[in-house]
Structures are given as structure tokens and as C-alpha cells.
Amino acid sequence: MIVELIRDKRKIVDRITREQIDEFVGLLQKSQNYRFLDLLHVLCVCDSVAIPNNQSYIVKKWLQTEQGRGIFLTARGQDINRQPNILYITTDSGATWRALHQFVDPSDEEYDKDQHDFFIHQLDLYKALCFGRNDYTINMLTKELRYLTWEETFLSLRSTILPDAIRAKYCDLTTCMFVDTGNNYSVLDHPNICFIYEYVGSKDEEKSQGDFVVKELVAIFPVLRDWIADFLDQNKCMFACDIGHNMLIEQVVRLLYHLVKFGYYLDAEDVKNLLPPLLNLLDGRHDFPYPREKDKEKKEKDYTKEQKKLVTKYQTSERWDKSPETEAIVNAKYQVLEVLDLLLTYQRNSRLQSFVSKFKAAEESGGQRNVQESMLRDSFNPHDQSKKALSLQRKINKELRDMFNQSALFDMDFLTKVLVDLSMYKYNKMITKSLNILNKLYSSKTNMFKLSTKAQILLTQDSSRVHREVLKNMPILRRLARTKLDDQQVKLMCSILDDLAEFCHLPMTPDEPHPMNQNIMISNDKRLYDMESDSSLKRYLDI
User: Fold this and answer.
1) Which residues of the chain have pLDDT under 50?
2) 364 and 288 within one domain
3) Nearest residue to 249 (alpha-carbon basis) of 341, 163, 158, 333
4) Are residues 108 and 140 in the same domain?
5) What is the pTM of this model?
6) Which has the least CB within 10 A, 244, 373, 420, 508?
7) Domain residues for 219?
8) Quick one: 374 and 255 in the same domain?
């Protein structure tokens, strides 16, 4: 009851003292009751906002000072002289070890449900401690204290002997502890409409999008990419009866979503390879109530006549109705739609880049034959109905159609049928998301042209430098805006805001605005963080 009284109540969470947290940790160590894990959990995340001071203190007090007394430790077999590539768990600080897949198996003779629940809630607490990219807690858990290393996490993720629901937990931890961390930030959430003229249309065009981006997953990304590709290739269908496996599919696609968002799949070939397995998961024709039976040689049999009738009934009506089984499928499909949303943004950005490149080619043509060059002249009239003008307009339209066709990622007719089918589910979030993507799909060309009218072409070195600085700092501001700031984060945010403020006026003349730099910042994000919304930042500014 206490947990529910505190959950998502910011005023109560802020009044919890460190002495009280010490008491909670002490009770957890004595009883090993998972409810105390939940109590620490609600102190780390409040209403989807991280509380970094509490996160860091709990790690210092429980995992560092008290050396994790009361925690269940895990290790790979090869690290404790046991069978390699099997994950083991100990509930008594290493005195005895058991294979994790046996520890969580209800049919095992030594199975203990309370210990099983404690372990599941411990994984949930790990996520809460790292929520909001708390660099300190992530580093302590994964590197310094090594309570959950990358090797352990990835082994658990791909271990087929573990229950799918637990693999889904480890996949979620992979995302929050090893992917959604450090300098990784979204390159697709917010459209970049500033282009450095020097690089437009050249092999170095990516420099105009910020070549300073540090991809921190260089070592582990190839392994993750190959495993995700194999997993999606093996899961072309979804079965309603297998809720745990559908939860795993959801978390794997969520992991993929972050990798796409952070720019690890920006190569056109990689993007095209992603689409077939994702569209398979969305296609309702690949949803079944249960899998086919297997013969002695483990080959799938065909459905019997009665089974085929049940499958047909499920696919034509029952699969859209609300149920626990349908909810697991809906959550997985919703996550796939999130990835498609990013890929539509990627498609729009690619088209905008191509369009700006055509503008540069026309501008530099110097009066030579170039269809687009005529549109730059003051004499160009798009409404002219003369024979010569209509011929020119047809040539322009053809070039634009070719540009759109070359950058098209989706089969419009097929995707439309899939999205309309998804809108039949009796879940509001699925209806809203599928129709939103359908609208985005059919308005993609119009949106690209609207965005192009706001594009900024940067000609000078100073403008390019400001653009890069804004690109580098804006993701940090967006991330800090979603957390309760500690003193160090407040100073970091104020330092960034001071630097951005310097760009808004001419050098050495604070009273003279710098319109170009102001436009660059507005173009990068019109929704700058509302400083008044965070009391800690306001106090710092008042000081």
C-alpha cells in the first residue's frame, strides 16, 4: 500500500529523506522481500521523470557501501568455473549457484516463487536506477561494480533456454543500460532543415548533418545488428497464445527503434533490409491463434480442417477484440509502427536533401541547360498555359517524380491495406497510431515541400560553426528537460544556454541581434525548454 501511495506523487517523493532511504535498504537486506525493491523503484522514477539524486544515492548506499548485501547476483558459467554460455544465479552472495533457467522454472523441484518474484523485481529496479540516462548509475552497475555486464545481458537476451518473458526483461535492460546512453541521441526525431552549402550534393554531405556525432556502440552494434536480423527473420508470424514471446518481439523491436533513432541504420541499404521483416509482423495475415503442431522429426504439420476453421474465424474477426493475448500482439505491432514512423521521417529527410541538391545544381548551372534553373528566374510562371510553358512544367514534374520514386521506401498500396487493417483493433493507441502514419504516408510529398520553404542554406564558416554547435547541444537540452535536474545538470544546462545566448547577438555588441544565428536555432528546434518548469533550475538562475 505504501508503494502505491508514493507512486508518481512528486511532492511525497521529494520529501523522502536519505535516512528513510537507508531504512528501506536495511529492511530489504533483512527480509529480501520484493516489495522493498518496488519501494526503491518508485523513488527513482516519478511520473516518467527520473530522480537522479535518489538513483545515485541508492546505488552508493546499497550496491557500493553495503556491497549489494541482499541482492541476487548473476554470472556467466565461464566466469565461475561452470558450464560456459549458461547464466547462473546466487541468492547467498556466491556460496551456491544455480542455472538461471532452472531457477525460474516452476516445474523444478527447488523452485521458489518468492525468490523468482524478487529476481524479476530486481531487474525492474536496475532499469529504474538507470532511467533517464543516469551516467553514474549505469557506469557503476555495468562497469565498476559489474552487477550486470554487457556479456551477461546479451547472453540472457539470446539464450533460448530462458523463458521469453525474462529475455524480454533483459532486452529492455540492453536498451536502457547499453544503447540509450552517453552521447547517443536521436538524429530523426527533429527535422534538420539547415544545410551547409559547401557540402550539399557532395560525398561529404553528411558533414552538413553533423559529422561530430559519436557513435558509442561501434563495438557492440555489429553483433546486435546481426542478432536482430536473425531474430526478425525467425519470427515472421505472431501467435496469440504465446504472450511471453510477443513481449520479447516488442522489446526487440523497441531496441531496434533506438538504434534507428540514433542513426545506426542510416545507410539506405540497411533501411531497405529492415522493411520486409517489419511489415511481416504488421501484416494480419501472419497472425495465428496458435502454432502448427510438429511431427516426430520436428517438422510443422498443416492445420486440420477444424483448426483451419478456427484460424479463419480468428483472422477475420477475433484477432481485433480486446484480450490479454491481443494486448501483447498490439504492443508489439505498435512498437513496429514507431519504427515505421522513424523510417518515414528518414524518407522525408532524404528527399529534402535531394531537393536541396537540385536547387544547388540549378543555382550553379550558370544559364546552361538545367530544367530546375528556369524555376529560379523571376520570369517563371507556374500557371502559364502556353505550349512552351506546359512542356517545361512536364519536364520539371518528371524530374521531381523521379526524385520521389528513387527515394521511396514503401509500397503504398500494400502499406495502406496493412494500416487500415491495424485501425480495426479495439485499442485506441493502435487506431490513432496507424491512422497517423497513414496520413503521414500520403502527405509525405506535401510535407517535404512545406519543410523546404523553411530550409536554411548556410554559406559562411561562422554560420556552419553555429549550426554544428546547436546540433551538438540541442539533444542534451532535450534530454535534461525530461529529468529532475541535480546541481551538476543545472550548471550544465545553464552553461549551454549561455553559449547559445552568445550566438543570438553580434560579437561584442549584446544589444545588436544576429538574425541568421537566431534563425538557425529556431530551425533546429522551436520548442526550447521552458526553464520555469524546473524548480531547481529556477533556484540556480535566481542565485
Assistant:
1) 207-208, 210-213, 527-543
2) yes
3) 333
4) yes
5) 0.89
6) 508
7) 194-294+307-452
8) yes
